[in-house]
Amino acid sequence: MPFSLIPGRLFAHYREVTPEYLKKQEITLLLSDLDFTLAPKSVRSPDAELRAWIAALGAEGISLMIVSNNRSGRRVTEFCADLGVPYQGRAGKPSTRGLEAAMARSGADRAHTAMLGDKLLTDMLAANRCGVLALMVEPLGGAVTPWQKVLHALQAPFKAVCRRRVEKSRGKKPTNG
């Protein structure tokens, strides 16, 4: 299993991860973190923008499953039930077990799966270790606590490497790490 923190692609917001982009990468299953990826952690229910994005994915045959490390499943359960999307709780990222369980439940393979998240040390590392396309977004709601600010600062060099690789390989299929 490769050990890399560098995502295959970096986006400013989940909306930039379009169905067209995913289809070009031959992705049929998009695994996604919830907190700070699709909504700030303080948000209890999905907004219309998120619902529209998920509907657009579904219209193009792309399934979405939330893969969360949350230990208390209440918020994730309610959020996903409200959206009508399945989730894999207690994923244990950066372990690959949550991603592998989600793929098994969906019947998808690694070659057609991507992981969307906002953290290098959990989401991107899990994706790279699992061998799925790692797609990173800037955290929704930004860094609030001192610890989050430290984590964001530590991620900056890896994001810079990703940006350079994307610039170098314009037009080529992204790779991880």
Quote the average pLDDT.
Answer: 90
Instruction: Give the CATH H-level superfamily.
Output: HAD superfamily/HAD-like
CATH fold type: Rossmann fold
Strand line-up in the sheet with most strands: 1-6-5-2-3-4
Largest sheet: 6 strands, parallel
Counting DSSP H or I runs of 4 or more residues, the number of helices is 6
List the secondary-structure elements in sequence, H or E.
EHEHEHEHEHEH
Note down, in words, how this protein is organized.
With 177 residues, the protein is an alpha/beta fold. 41% of the residues lie in helices and 14% in strands. The protein has six helices and six strands. The protein has helices at 19-24, 48-59, 74-83, 97-106, 120-130, 146-168; strands at residues 9-11, 29-32, 63-67, 87-88, 113-117, 133-137. It has a six-stranded parallel sheet, with helices on both faces. InterPro entries: HAD-like_sf, HAD-SF_hydro_IIIA, HAD_sf, PGPP1/Gep4. This is YqeG family HAD IIIA-type phosphatase. GO terms for molecular function: phosphatidylglycerophosphatase activity.
Question: Quick recap of the structure?
Answer:
The protein has 177 residues and is α/β, with parallel strands linked by helices. The chain has helices at 19-24, 48-59, 74-83, 97-106, 120-130, 146-168, and strands spanning 9-11, 29-32, 63-67, 87-88, 113-117, 133-137.
